[in-house]
Amino acid sequence: MSYSKERHIAELAVQRACILTNRVFHSRVKGTVTKDDKSPVTLADYGAQALVIGAVNKNFPQDNIVGEEDAEVLRQKADVREPTWQYVKETIEQSQEVVGEIGSINSAEEMMDLIDLGVHAGGPTGRIWALDPIDGTKGFLRGGQYAVCLGLIVDGQVTVGALACPNLPVDPKNPDGEKGIILSAVRGQGATLKPLLENICADEPGIPIKMNAPASFADAAFCEGVESGHSNQGQQASIAKKLGITKESVRMDSQAKYASVARGDGDLYLRLPTSMTYEEKIWDHAAGSLIVEEAGGIVSDVRGNPLNFAVGRTLKKNNGVIAAPKNLHAKVIEAVKDELKAVL
Ligand SMILES: Nc1ncnc2c1ncn2[C@@H]1O[C@H](COP(=O)(O)O)[C@@H](O)[C@H]1OP(=O)(O)O
Ligand SMILES: [Mg+2]
Ligand SMILES: [Mg+2]
Ligand SMILES: [Mg+2]
């Protein structure tokens, strides 16, 4: 199968969602609510989830969806529901040219029902879309990096991925220039990048991307998260030292790290667990890991095992994530195993 329709719809869906997230970012009211796990969610997360699921459900109504958010807060709180609905409505009005392809939403009720289609349990069989409507909500709120992330898992294997990164520069050599890129990939067909345009019906083909293949760690730069609670930055620094990496790490929120490594603006992504009991979520890694693999890299857990997307909503068979160029991955895993020998 070519999966060209899936890729196209995924790209349009994440692109339209970014119109909404951008509007919310520039407004005063973000409707931030703290979830049970103490992480923030905003009305942009809810609105983006509704828009993306609407697009998937219109085109692939038989498919299952694992989405990060649910509509419980919206059903209870009119002061979150109503502004979310206003943003969704305005975004659809502003993107009429793609409504034929990725659909409309006609009421707040329908918006909440779409959000709640993301409840699937995941698993080893069938077609399952994994959606993070805003990955890096903390980055989004502070004006840093965030991403809208959508992956299609087919019989346990990530097969299609699209990542929209509104705050990554189009040209990494000009970090203060134009911002916003979309990366996408189909397994076996490579990864591409294109600018995130305001005019989303102008469907330019993407440019193929390849990861760097630095000859040695002395030339390599590594990416890690901003939040010290999401990965163990102390151990990451120690591994970098062991490997002979001399460049300062680049810290950014969200799957923008996978995007940076895939396009060659960075070489390694280290995500060492802060706790061996934390289960990474499939929506935090599906699209990004496929894009890195299709750009020529290897993505594994800290033991060097492939990420297993076939066991539910989380990657419960894995701990942490390491993304690296093919020629360096085995050496990184050696250093990681040495660093974590007390817990592995
Ligand atoms: N203890 C943790 N370890 C790893 N990732 C976490 C942890 N707590 C939250 N996250 C997730 O990390 C992601 C962002 O990571 P990064 O630091 O790379 O930007 C978010 O999706 C966030 O999930 P959540 O959506 O529940 O906040
Ligand atoms: Mg996330
Ligand atoms: Mg999220
Ligand atoms: Mg979240």
Walk me through the structure.
With 344 residues, this protein is of the alpha+beta class. It has 2 domains: 205 residues, 2-Layer Sandwich (Fructose-1,6-Bisphosphatase, Chain A, domain 1), CATH 3.30.540; 123 residues, 3-Layer(aba) Sandwich (D-Maltodextrin-Binding Protein, domain 2), CATH 3.40.190. The strands form 3 sheets. Strands 3-4-5-6-7-8-9 form a 7-stranded mixed beta sheet, sandwiched between helices. A 5-stranded mixed beta sheet has the order 11-10-12-14-13, with helices on both faces. α8 packs across α11 and α9 runs parallel beside α10. The relative contact order is 0.13. One magnesium ion binds next to β4.
Query: SSE order, as H and E?
Result: HEEHEHHHHEHEEEEEEHEHEHEEH
Question: Residue ranges: pLDDT <50 for 5 or more in a row?
Answer: none
| Strand residue content | 15-25%
Which ligands accompany this protein? adenosine-2'-5'-diphosphate, magnesium ion
Largest sheet, in brief, is: 7 strands, mixed
Q: Write down how many β-strands occur, each being a DSSP E stretch of 2 or more residues.
A: 14
Mean pLDDT across every amino acid position: 96
